[in-house]
Design a protein that fits this description.
Mean pLDDT of chain B: 92
Oligomer: heterodimer
Distance between the termini of chain A: 36 Å
Number of helices of chain B: 0
Low-confidence stretches of chain B: none
Largest sheet of chain B: 6 strands, mixed
Radius of gyration of chain A: 13 Å
Number of helices of chain A: 0
Helix content of chain B: under 10%
Number of strands of chain B: 12
Number of strands of chain A: 11
Radius of gyration of chain B: 13 Å
Distance between the termini of chain B: 41 Å
Structural class of chain A: mainly beta
Helix content of chain A: under 10%
Low-confidence stretches of chain A: none
Order of helices and strands of chain A: EEEEEEEEEEE
Strand content of chain A: over 45%
Mean pLDDT of chain A: 94
Shape of chain A: globular
Largest interface: A-B, 25 and 22 residues
Strand content of chain B: over 45%
Shape of chain B: globular
C-alpha cells in the first residue's frame, strides 16, 4: 500500500515548455486534489476532483489543466510554463467523510 | 469564503517546554478543522482533526487542540516539546461536505532549542 505517490519528484523547465505531473493513489479514494505551496503562503488549491471523469477549479486554477480519466490517477498539466509557476506541488486524496492524505510533493522550477 | 489565520510565523521553544500554536478561522457554518505538520522536504502529515463532538481533540505525537467556537479558534498544544517536533505546522479549515476543500493558514515554523 503506497498511499499517494507523485511523479516526478523534481523538474526544471524553461519558460514556455509544457509538462504533466502525475498523482496516483491506491486507496480507492473518490476525491483528489492538487495544491501548490509557496513560501509564506501556505498551500493553495489549484484543482480538485470529486470522482472519475470530473474536475473543478480551486483557488488558483489559471495556467493549469487537470484530468481524472481513471479513479486512481489525477494529472496536472502546465501547457506553457511561466516562472510564476515555480513552486512545490502537492497532491492529496481522501475518501468520503475522511481526511486528506498528501503525497511527498514535486518541486518544479521554471527558468 | 473561509479563511485561516496563523498569527505566529516563527516560534522558538526550549526542549521540554510547553507549546501552543495559534489558529483562528473564519467560516459561516460549523467548521471542519485540521492541524498538519510538515518536516523539511516532506509532505504533510495529519496531526489531528475536529469534525464534531468533544471540543478537545487528541492527536498523534502527544498533540491536542481545542475548538472554541466563541473565539473562532483551534489552537494546537503540547505539554512538553521534543527536539523532533521542529517542523512547520499548518492549520486548515474544510468547506463542503465532510471538509471537501481545505483552506490552509500560512504556517508556523517551530524551532526547538536544546
Amino acid at each position: 500500500n503506497a498511499g499517494v505517490t507523485q511523479t516526478p519528484k523534481f523538474r526544471v523547465l524553461k519558460t514556455g515548455q509544457s509538462m504533466t505531473l502525475l498523482c496516483a493513489q491506491d486507496m480507492n479514494h473518490e476525491y483528489m486534489y492538487w495544491y501548490r505551496q509557496d513560501p509564506g503562503m501556505g498551500l493553495r488549491l489549484i484543482h480538485y476532483s470529486v470522482g472519475e471523469g470530473t474536475t473543478a477549479k480551486g483557488e488558483v486554477p489559471d495556467g493549469y489543466n487537470v484530468s481524472r480519466l481513471k479513479k486512481q490517477n489525477f494529472l496536472l498539466g502546465l501547457e506553457s510554463a511561466a516562472p510564476s509557476q515555480t513552486s512545490v506541488y502537492f497532491c492529496a486524496s481522501r475518501a468520503v467523510a475522511d481526511t486528506q492524505y498528501f503525497g511527498p510533493g514535486t518541486r518544479l522550477t521554471v527558468l | 469564503a473561509q479563511s485561516v489565520t496563523q498569527p505566529d510565523i516563527h516560534i522558538t521553544v526550549s526542549e521540554g517546554a510547553s507549546l501552543e500554536l495559534r489558529c483562528n478561522y473564519s467560516y459561516g457554518a460549523t467548521p471542519y478543522l485540521f492541524w498538519y505538520v510538515q518536516s523539511p522536504g516532506q509532505g504533510l502529515q495529519l496531526l489531528l482533526k475536529y469534525f464534531s463532538g468533544d471540543t478537545l481533540v487528541q492527536g498523534i505525537k502527544g498533540f491536542e487542540a481545542e475548538f472554541k467556537r466563541s473565539q473562532s479558534s483551534f489552537n494546537l498544544r503540547k505539554p512538553s516539546v521534543h527536539w523532533s517536533d521542529a517542523a512547520e505546522y499548518f492549520c486548515a479549515v474544510g468547506a463542503g461536505g465532510g471538509g471537501n476543500k481545505l483552506t490552509f493558514g500560512t504556517g508556523t515554523q517551530l524551532k526547538v532549542e536544546l
